[in-house]
Every structure is written in structure tokens, then in C-alpha cells.
Amino acid sequence: MSRLPVVAVVGRPNIGKSTLVNRVIGRREAVVESEPGVTRDRREFVGEWAGRRFLMIDTGGWQTKGDQLTEDISDQAEAAIAAADVVLFVVDVTAGIGPDDDGVARMLRGAEQPVLLAGNKVDGPSAEGLLPDFWSLGVGEPIGVSALHGRGVGDLLDRLVDALPESEGGSDAADDGPPKLAIIGRPNVGKSTLLNRLVGEERVLVSPVPGTTRDPIDVEVEIDGEQYVLVDTAGIRRSSKLSDRPEFFAVQRAKKVLASADVALLVVDATEGATQGDQRIAEEAASGGAAVIVVLNKWDDVDEYQKELTEDSVADRLGFVGWAPVLRMSAKTGARIGRLGAAIETVLDHRAIRIPTPELNRLVRGWQSAHPIPVRKGRRAKVQYAVQAGEEPPTFILFASGGDVPDDYLRFIENRLRGTFDFVGTPIHFVTRRKRRDRGRA
After folding, report:
1. What is the pLDDT of residue 174?
2. Which among 215, 251, 302, 360 would be 20 to 30 A from 236, CA to CA?
3. How far is CA 337 from CA 299, 330, 343, in A?
4. pTM for this predicted structure
5. Is residue 186 scored above 90 in pLDDT?
6. Of 329, 350, 371, at which residue does a domain stop?
7. Are the C-beta atoms of 140 and 116 separated by less than 8 Å?
8. Contact criterion met (CB below 8 Å) for 132 and 93
9. Rounded CA gap, 307 and 103, in Å?
């Protein structure tokens, strides 16, 4: 559910950063050449170690002096550092400490993120004796590795995994199980009836008394030939209206289910229309990262006038999730429930969309050129770089300078993304990072 942690691989040119990245990801994708400066743009690769997945950003070589191209490459490396959760600083132990190593170290000594110092080209015992010299960089213990031969890389990755932040979902390991569908909504709107209809048997007690379903109930179902895990959650109500402790804890468990769900089926009673309670539940689902499908239940029980009122209430109360498909059906009779499978497959597919980094940055630059961020308090922020750091839901890190990116501009970028890519049914999350003023240049 949460975005992948970001690891920025930085250092001066021609020290083996790309070789190390290739070693970690297990395939030769990062460009490796003997000529310095081959890696000019940041490239992203997904690595995995000990059940944790992370996004590795392979940067161009950082240099303190040089021509305009070198300046641009260095700026790219600094942007990667600003967007990272962990920085992997690579040095060449056989070459000793140079001015560019010092420049990177000065910048990293003030970084908020954990920094790991990888002493590369430790191909044998004789090179290990060179490691202590790199303590003087002031960024921690040098860890000896050989990216070419794999020596010490496992120990480095153990340290890297320990430094990664905990993900919101509790793990970054890939989950190969069936997608999880959370049936959510206010009490007594037909959630249990919908589950029983999909399962084909009476698995959950159906009662007109609100709050009958106390515990989330997991059950595997097949919808249009696809396997899913369905969860029927206790109706969510405001804490001030909870009548007893069992219902209170049922609500808390329901919210936890939302945090791990792939798709949330928000059941709305069509005879009442969308309410403030439905609005709050939709906010919980979207902020948790689940895709959302709005199910207008009991649709056959309302006349044309009420249908119009219900449609208006959805546009009013749930307009902030206007990207969510709206299905009109009856869980009790099964009318139009056959449309649910296609909608679920659609939102699952679209929440896994990944935008290539060059294309993403080209688009963001164009949108900013046409519609710059408004001046706030005499300053105008600018998004220098963007990277998609996660899927399911799509999560983007924006590296900005000159101030904070305001929420209304994030909504502008979101609207542009939705207008360009088909993100139907899925929320889009943003993480913003500020550029450090002290670039640590010599």
C-alpha cells in the first residue's frame, strides 16, 4: 500500500555506483563504462533484500567543479539525495579521498536521512587496510564491498534494510496473494448482504439493527473468474455516536482493514443518498491508499425523484473522489451486480500504472511553464524533479526549491496527471521534499 522507500546512490564519477546497483538488483541494467560521467540522468530500479523492497536511484557522478554538463549532473545527484529515505555514499578505497568525495561528505553531514558509506573495490584483504582512512569523511563507518565480485554486498544490504523506514503497511515485500476487497460503509446499508450475494451463501448475519457485524470476516471469493479476499467490516460511525465498547472496537478494526485493502467497496444506501458519514469513510479509504468503487445499493427501491437526489448527493458529498467509479445495484436481488467484477479489475489495473521518469519530468516542466506555482509570502516554489516512488497507490515524490508546494498546486498536478493517464478508481499520493540551501560546494 505504501510507497517504496527511496535509496539514493551517490558519489563522484567512475567509482562503481552503477556496478553496485546492478549487483543489488541482480541484472545488468544500469550503464557501466570506464569513461567517467556515463550516468548522466537519475535512473530508478526496484531492489529487494530480506523481504524489503526499495527504489534505488542511480545518480550521475557528483563533482565540485566542471562545465555546465557536470553542474547539471551534480544537481541531479543533489535532487536524488533530497528525495531519498536513505543515502548510499559510494567511494573508491583504492583511489583515496579526493576533493569530490569531500564535497559529497560535506553535503551529507547535514542530511536528515541515514547515510551509509560503501567503500568499493575492496577486492581482497590488502584493500581492507585502506578503509579506516575514510572515517575522516565524517559520515560514519566505511563498509567494505566489491561491487564487481559481490564481496561484502550482503552485509551492506543488511545495514541498508535496517536503515529503511517502516512502511505504512508494515512490509514492502511483494504480496502474491489475491487482492483484498474491503466492503465498507455506514451501519445497515447492506454490506453483509453484498458479501453474502458475492459468496453465494449466508456467511454473515444480516439484520436491520445497526452494528450487527462486529468483526471483520475474511472469505475468498471468485468474481468473473478472478480470486479475491472479501472483508465485511463493521459499520463505521463517529466515535461520539458509538453506543457500546464492542461497536467501538469494531470500527477501529474496520479502519485497520482499510489500511491494507487494495480496493474499497463503499456501499451507500440509495434510499438515503450520500451522507457526511459516507464522506468521512471515503476520506479514510482514499488516504489509506485503497482504490475506491462507490456502490449505490438498494437502487431498485427508489423512485426516479429519489434517484436524482441520490446522484446529486454523491456529486456533492463524494466529489473529492470523483475519480471513483459509481455502480448502481441491488445486493438483495442481485440486480446489476454483474458489473462489479469488471470495475474491480479496472481499478486494480489502473492503480498499478507507472510513469517513466523522463516522461513525468517533461510533463511537470510543461505544466509549470504554462501555470507556475503561485507566489506565496513573496516566494515562488518550483518543482525541480519528480519521481514515481510507488504504485498501488501511485505515489510521487516532488523535489522543490524556493518554498513549499501548496496543496492547491498539488491538486493541479493531480488533475493534470489524471487528464493524461487513466488513473480511474485510484487515489494519487504526493510526497514533497525541500532542497537544501547549503549545497556543500567547494
Report:
1. 46
2. 302
3. 11, 7, 11
4. 0.65
5. no
6. 350
7. yes
8. no
9. 66
